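Minutes, project check-in
Item: structure for the 602-residue chain
Input as provided by the requester:
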Amino acid sequence: MSRALKEPDCDVKQLFDSLWDEEIAYGLANASMSNQQAKSVFFTREIRHYLRDFPYRELLALHSDVKNNAKADELRNLGNYMFHPRVKRYIEAVKYYNESITYSEKGSEQRALAYGNRSLICLELRQYEDCLKNIRLARDSNYPERLAEKLKKREKDAKLALEKASKKVPKGPSRRTHEQAERQLKLSYGAHENMPQVAKCLQLQRNDQFGRHVVTNHRLNVGDVVMIDKPFVTVLDDLLRYVRCAYCYEEKIFTLIPCEGCTLAMYCSEQCLSKAYQQYHRYECAIIRDMWRISGDVPVVAIRAIALAVAAFDHDVQALKEHLNGLNEAGINAFSMDWKAATPKDIYDAVYVLTTNQQLRRRKDLAFTIFFATIVHQLVLERTELGSICAVDTNTTKLLFDLILRHLQIAKCNRQWLCFMDYKMEQSLNDSEGYATGCFPLIGMMNHSCAPNVKRITLRDGRCAIVVIRPIAGGGQLFDNYERHHLKNDLEDRQTVLLNMFNFRCGCEACMNDYPTLEELPHRGIPFENMLHGYMIHKELESHDVKKAIKYMSVLGACLKKKANKYPEFELCHSQVQFERCFLILYSYTSKLPKFWKYCNP
């Protein structure tokens, strides 16, 4: 996932694979172990011993994240190129300026110049308030006196334009604000007494075949909203870190400010920066760039979950250790918990017991996870304040390793996309894109199907709604989709990815019957007028018009109910895709950046 931060160095998986073939597999091959727990203990001891003298830091290019004014200059120059009148790629220019700001030292000329350049783009894009904010930031960062007159003129122009614009803007809330308030998604049925975010008809069950899973005690219809869950931990996608606030995820590309301890995190305000630091960033700041670079979002999600757990216990690691030592994991049931009175400690318990699939992991996969956990553990001890806490107690050191190993596996099995609607210029339509990954305590209880009967819809506030997209009979199980759907991915791809990522061989209806992708579904026998109507709806929804989405949602929903037993016929599957799009148009966040493209050359 970490495309933006990848460097030419090998990542941790590549390093492990080479060592496995050359060194580790041979040493572990003769080990006699009766169960998975024994394997885990053995692997941990042997890998820790092996890494003691192995130069993994050099091979993975692990190093402390420090400010670098020379790098800031280089990035600002790239921004200047994008801003040039012959290029005019303003949004790309701002991204470079933002990255330059993260690399620059506090109070340096490099940072002041980047703020100043950002203010100029804001003026070009008629973001006058943001222009003035950047001018203030530039001055606070010791903007050079030789350029002060340019900044003063820019400030005057922005104030004058803002004054003119304010006379044209009507007072009071906008119509769009009222429309959004009216479109707040709610449960379609009454909620559990102590679980207001889940419909009362849903129950958590457990058996040997499915493990923990969610069922309904009465029939659910297409369009029913049965759960609205809030993630315990989220991590902003690395491609958006110079576009969105790393804490609240607001799209604030023109006014982001940097963390002073790393070159990655940016925030929309001092308040968000402070909250992030207090809740989790203090424990990840020194290692987050390396984690993203060598392995993507999984270790970041894992470390952040641990940091949030420590914060939930008032940053008392000893109290967290005592709590987990006395925790009855089998007694934790997120569906019987009193969510109205739930504390962060209670919610963490529900996340702590999410599946790790450790018992299903093959020998090499388990060894790799321990190999990686050992590296992460050592970096946390060396670079973060958790190291000094653990230094006085070997049991606390072991707890930290156990938590890292556990949450790496939880993150791998349970992380899910939070999505927004992003404009695809080459396709002239808005489409769903991930902006963050997160772990949900309740949604995480649902099993996978390549032909799911529910759809996750990310709401504007970061919560996630579960919407029924295929009728579910009373007693039936709710099936989510782990990003591998038969309409997009063929059988071989689904089976391979699901086995590698989640350690199970999928036996859902789509895999058992080898359902085709949407492109491969046969069109023969479908009346021409039906095909024409379906493609007309598709084109209409490309405009991302709210009224059209409301209109077609009922039409598409009726089709999905009426023809449910014909799944996976093309007409039905195509209607399902458009039905989901209607929900996204109505309830998901939509990027504001495309409105600035009219000022830019293609």
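Outcome recorded: The radius of gyration is 26 Å.
No further action items on this chain.
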